[in-house]
Amino acid sequence: MNNPSSLREIDLDGFRRDMDALRARTLRSLSRADFDHLRRIEWFGRGLAVLGYGLAWMGVNPLSVFAIALAITIRWMVMHHVGHGGYERIPGIPERYRRKRFALGRRRWLDWLDWIEPAAWNYSHNQLHHYHTSEPADPDRVERNVALLRDIRLPRALKYVVVLAGALTWKLTYYAPNALNGLESRKLHTRGAPHENFINLLNFWDLRLPLVRRLWARSVAPYLLVHFVLVPCLFLPLGEAAFWAVLVNRILAELLANLHTFVCIVPSHAADDLALFDGPVKTKDEFYLRQVLTTANYRTGGDVNDVLHMWINYQIEHHLFPDLPMSTYREIQPEVAALCAKYGVPYVQESVFARLSKLLEVFVGSDRPAATAKHVFPQAMRGTLPKEEPPSSEPVLSSP
């Protein structure tokens, strides 16, 4: 194992070659079994929804809340990997599982009717976040997004209350508007910079702004009407009590699904042991290195464990190779970790609760995220990576 003291001492060329070779072998190994794995998880989620609603009309109960919440989370997980094109190379898959069809247009009502507009998600997440991870252009750069909460003079306990409120509602209050902001940034060429027309908590209700109107028309209103009006109304033939029981169970499930996704997703890119960068990736070597330096994994292994972690427990592998099927990440994770050890690249893996604890320190302002990774790589914060090829347009990780 190498023990480099700076980025310049890492054999970036060797690291890239080995990662490229791993990717190529993984692509050659893809088969129908990888798609069947996705379908099993998808049907498990649908079964949970049937179970949850099948019991929800009888009264408020934790089993319904948990089943519906996990079904919501699994649906997002399916969208996440299909939207990245993870199943495009598997022969014979139905067209609806291709990224240019899934959840787009009329398919949205069947595939993924969530708070987040699919087109906005596909650009903001798949492009901006994945190819600008932990840069100023990353819409999900936690340290910047929570700067106000970090700096404001409030009791620590009150800050935790604010974080909890945000976590319980974050798909509505953060992800849906932030995804639209990302999509709008492509049109305005303001990537990573604020803009007066972007949505924030202060103008969330200001329908004079076109982007706010789009948020309400395409995200908030459809979700509210379908999930909190139409679905409970389907149970009215069983009585008014059934309607209210379904509605309350669904509201509680929404809060739990938000909390679950927040706990899994947000800690994977934030803490004082993960790097921040002040400029864009310039080479493929650099891309691979940055994905590892800016990302953390959780405990891995087993479908139950992996589903409960939303497959975010393989976040390093997913960021290295975002367009692979879910099933392959479990297979290549040990090899990715071994390659990182071979080249002296820090590979961070802890329990989700350990990462959540570190995330909370970022939120309440107890740590010093501006010093991130300086103790590991002094050059990381200055973006002084070796240049081996001219800058290229995104995405730098092209398909072979």
Characterization of this structure:
Mean pLDDT is 87; it is low at 1-5 and 370-400. Helix 5 crosses helix 8. This protein is mainly α. 57% of the residues lie in helices and 1% in strands. It has a two-stranded parallel sheet with strand order 1-2. It is built from 15 helices and 2 strands.
Q: What's the layout of helices and strands?
A:
Elements: H1 12-29, H2 32-56, H3 62-83, H4 108-111, H5 118-131, H6 142-145, H7 147-151, H8 156-188, H9 210-233, H10 240-265, H11 284-293, E1 296-297, H12 303-308, H13 315-320, H14 326-343, E2 348-349, H15 352-364
Parallel strand pairs: 1-2
Helix pairs in contact: 1-11, 1-14, 2-3, 3-10, 5-8, 8-9, 8-10, 9-10
What does this entry show, briefly?
By secondary structure, this protein is mainly α.
Give the rounded overall mean pLDDT. 87
Question: Could you tell me the radius of gyration in angstroms?
Answer: 21 Å
Give the distance, in angstroms, between the N- and C-terminal Cα atoms.
Answer: 29 Å
Would you count the extended β strands for me?
Answer: 2
Give the class from helix and strand content and strand pairing.
mainly alpha
Strand proportion: under 5%
Question: Which sheet architecture does the biggest sheet show?
Answer: 2 strands, parallel
Order of helical and strand elements:
HHHHHHHHHHHEHHHEH
Helix content: 55-70%
Uncertain segments of ≥5 residues (pLDDT<50)? 1-5, 370-400
